[in-house]
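Crash report, auto-generated. Payload:
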Amino acid sequence: MSGIIEQERYTCAIGALQSVVAIPKAVPILHSGPGCGDMIQGFFERSTGYAGGSTSPCTNFSEKEVVFGGIDRLRQIITNTYKVLDSDLQVVLTGCTAGIVGDDVDSLVREFQEEGKPIVSVETAGFKASNFEAHSLVVNAIIEQYVSLYEVDNKPKSETETVNLFASIPYQDPFWKGNLAEYKRLLSGIGLKVNVFFGPESGGVAEWQTIPKANFNILVSPWYGKPIVDLLNTRYKQEYTWFPHPPIGANETERFLMQVLTFALEQGANIDEKKALTFIKHESDAYYEEIDNLATFLLEFRYGLPNHTHILHDAGYVVALSKFLLHEVGIVPKEQFIVDNTPEKYQEQIRKELKSTSDKREIPLYFEPDAGKVQDIIRGLNHSGRGIIIGSGWDKELAKEKDYDYLSAAVPSPYRLVLTTNYIGFSGGLRVIEDIYGNVLATYR
Amino acid sequence: MPKVNLSTPEVQIREKRINSITGYQGDAQDLVNESLCGLKDKSRSFSQCLGCATSKAACMTILIQDGAVISHGPVGCASCLHEFAFTYRVNSPLRSIENPTQRKIYSTNLQEKDTVYGGSAKLEESIREVYKRTKVNAIFVLTTCAAGIIGDDVDSVCEQAEEELGIPIVAIYCEGFRSRVWTTGFDAAYHGIARKLIAKPRERRNDIINVINFWGSDIFKEWFAPFGAQPNYITPYSTTERLKYSSEAVATVQACSTLGSYLGAVLEQEFGVPEIPAAPPYGIAQTDRWFRALGKSLGKEDVAEEIIAEKKEKYLPQIEALREKLSGKAAYVTAGAAHGHALLDILGELGLEATGAAIFHHDPIYDSGREENDQLAQRVNDYGNVPNFNICNKQEFELVNALNKIRPDILMARHGGMTLWGAKLGIPSLLIGDEHYGMGYEGLVNYGERILETLENDEFVKNLEKHAVNPYTKWWLKQEPHYFLAGGGGK
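Recovered output after restart:
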């Protein structure tokens, strides 16, 4: 969809500079207008990492570069980046200005690559793609231009228990850091060694170099990230297992771990299946002990709790939270809204996935990146009982208008701080419960 | 004197209009002297992400109560605008807005095909759709780099839409690449507002004084009351109606001359509202001058003298007590131009030693053309020179380098993203968002107390310093801050 967008919930291609920021000691270099970095920093907030935000080098296109091209300026900026900043990997990202004037950035970056610099270029003109899509462009560029240099020492599929995980998009998923750490813990629990690539649980560029060695890949995503596992399949013959949304709560986390376990065994990973099942059982038991305690509160609290929800989020969270809230919390998902601009070819499978939530009820689903329009739809809806809106900071006002409860769980949101909280896994489900009822109980004064 | 020209849809950029610069290394006195005789800008051979005009134009339009804003570009160019929706909501009690309404912010979401075939048709539809959804009293259209380069005729589209819809549709030319000085974005917004919203005065209202500001607290109500006047804050929290008749005010004052330079001049030259001939009231000397200038403009000099006397009596003892505690402490300032000068005034008045400053850009003279409005010149006259005075274009690498060498007792900042570096170096750092907080006699007390508190409570920064990650190379920290500035040795 390409119409007008009110209240953006995602940003343009150059927003994928945050995927670079999320790699320890990597630096994004922007060949763009002067405001691009500022816009992205402002969208995500508290997102500067090692060398993002005001630290990132940028050519800051002026009229001169628009007229005469900006390649010389970029050469100067890259050269001096090496003098000013310590970094393990440099990723040059282009903005609209460079895209329209047609600077040949790839050739310039190749000059630096030939000098042995760990530098990568990727085209991210804002009008070309969203940051959801550009995340894959960035990852694939790093694989093709950087990881490829280390293939000799990292034989494809040489470690049967190692896997590459592609799941949360850094910063666009506000819980990415906690989620990646929890994926790693869970998958380690069933006997796998996991590369997560982003955040403090990754091993930085050294980990990226070992991508080929993994036996197979895991994609956790409703649609984005698919080009990454496709590339690795072509390049290193690594198969992948695809889970359609972040697993939140016990049902889906068990399903996720069983899917990966089964796949790992098929791929010849040397895993102690019994031990893995024991691990899953232990995690699940601990989870249900909490749900047991919680059930009394949910059933008996006399002063009002939400009984239905509208979620405005990316496809992964909409499906995951709908399933989780219905089956494991008892909050009924009413109309749901996917605001991530899902490409049409993936929409049908996402609809099916959401439909699988329940045999006995239909959950109306909208794909609509124009979230202002979504809010107007919600304004017109009327369900009995107390409702909760789960969305971004934009939705706080809507919740107030409708006298609904509200949980901030999507970007952009100036109303919530997220540090290392995870929403995936057994513990993630419990955290969602804490967040929802914490907010609800805070309304009683 | 630069002349305002409202006949063209685009504002002339600041570096051409008033010779603003983004690179300088030296001291404040020299900069003031050079400003009088043709200052030359310097370029850098290294640069970091800056910020651009579009978000500056956005904040001056989004906060107008009954308007909607369309960013004509790819979605990225409107990414950070949600911050202004937050600002509007959170600061509304300061301006007695009881029910702040949702801000209406849109992107035309330009795609690749639009860069080939043009985005004008899309803009046309978007304006219609926004009007249908919002029924606002004015729609502001902000241009972006992409829209600018592909050459969409935004002005014509807006003119046509205006005819069709019967409300002002304001084209604002604020593409990021057009100007090296992002504050051109303020000028661009004001230019559009002046062209489309401000009407010729029907009368002169001696009880209304325009205040050009951001979203700071409502201190002017109290200040103007003895003069029998009230403030008309423009443009945040204003309405199209109040903007329309800002032309009828008796005078205009500025909270920050960097912000309001252009609008002040437009109101004076095009609508006959004089800007008072004094820089904003920071520090005692400047506060007295400001009240006197205001009194003179209103023909009420005696009222001004009464206020000054009253304030002196009330606040001087407190200020003196603060001076005793703060005297001799070293402070470094980083801020956009005029507010940086304001902070330097406050430091001078409170007896702190200003050991340096990283100021984002410099306007040698404001659009009013009046030397009395030159805050830096006043600062140097009132409190002395400031060494290590850099015009840094918000380049973090220069700030880090300078701070690391100068190691002041405190870092005073006025723009997000810069205090972090003070803290990482273990330097107590203070950023105050409310631009009115330091004004007048009471402002000196406000600031003095906050500075004391910041100096006192340094445990957090001292701990952060021990664990701070620093991406800058040892080599860089050994160079001079202006190494990459033309003439600095770096290439």
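Post-recovery validation: The longest strand of chain A covers residues 159-166.
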